[in-house]
Design a protein that fits this description.
93 residues; alpha+beta; Arc Repressor Mutant, subunit A; three-stranded antiparallel sheet; 4 helices; 3 strands; 58% helix; 20% strand; globular
Length: 93
C-alpha cells in the first residue's frame, strides 16, 4: 500500500468513526472533528456516496449545509476496501 493510499484510508476511517460516534453531521462538523480539510471530507464522501446518505438542508435563507449519515452504521472498513477494489477492477475492464 502506498503512502497516499494509507493516508486516504486513515482519513476515511476518521470520517466513518466520527459518523458512527456522533451520528449525522454536516461537512464542516466532520472536518472540524477529524481535522481534515472540508473540501477533502466532501470529496471522500462524494466518491463513496454508496455508503453515505446526504441531505442538503437550508439552515437560514441562502445558507445550505450537507448533512451526512452512514447508510449502514455497522459497515466495516473491509467492506469499503472490497467495494473500492471491485470498482477499480470494473474501470480497468
Amino acid at each position: 500500500m502506498s503512502h497516499l493510499q494509507r493516508r486516504s484510508k486513515i482519513k476515511l476511517l476518521k470520517i466513518f468513526n466520527v459518523l458512527r460516534t456522533n451520528g449525522p453531521l454536516h461537512i464542516r462538523g466532520i472536518a472540524r472533528i477529524t481535522n481534515i480539510h472540508p473540501a477533502t471530507v466532501s470529496s471522500i464522501i462524494s466518491r463513496l456516496n454508496y455508503f453515505f446518505d446526504i441531505d442538503n438542508i437550508e439552515i437560514v435563507p441562502g445558507f445550505r449545509a450537507k448533512i451526512v449519515r452512514l447508510k449502514n452504521p455497522d459497515i466495516k472498513i473491509e467492506d469499503v476496501e472490497r467495494y473500492l477494489e471491485v470498482r477499480k477492477q470494473i474501470k480497468n475492464i
